[in-house]
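Q: Hi! First time doing this. I have a protein sequence and I read that you can turn it into a structure. Is that right? Here it is:
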Amino acid sequence: MTGLKPWLTSAQRSKLDGSDDALFYEQPRFVTHVDDAFLKRLTQLYRDRLKSGSRVLDLMSSWVSHLPEDMQFETVVGHGLNAQELARNPRFDRWFVQNLNQQPSIPEPDASFDAVLIAVSVQYLQYPERVLAEVRRVLSPGGQLIISFSNRLFYSKAIAAWRDGSEAQRLALVQEYIRQTAGFSKPEVIAEVNSPLGWQQWLGLGQDPFYAVLATAV
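A: Yes, that's right. Below is the predicted 3D structure, encoded as structure tokens:
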């Protein structure tokens, strides 16, 4: 397993709330954590990059996966930390609950998926190099990894490297996660930021920025 460079220290992996993540996610949250424009863009990205009939693993998910309603897949497996949320998700053929910060091994066979999705959750991984090594293991050759995020987060549960970074630094951080994991192509970056006008910002208007980092299993 290729480890991350030394700049990701123990302190940078730390969280303000160091309690078991399972406690934080014990109560279901049947909400979306980004705005509708972000979700529409994410669904379009999935439509553009995923293939009908493929096998999909939706890591760190919840009650909605944002997959295109007009696309059918061979199987969609969900993962998260709240069983009630996962049970509500209509796209899942099956799902499992697991704290990846405590147990990064994914309980699936080698090369069992054509795509792995991590939507608006990568900021909570304390050992992303271990998780992404597992992602590469369960992806078939040519399979797609799609990591998406915005600027929203549960601040107390994001790692320090994420909390302390600018949006550009966070984007670079995710790219480095992929570069430091053997078996992935050079990461592809999508960054769409719509800066609100002054009065829109004052009123709390404007769209959430959309970031995605993609890579192919090689």
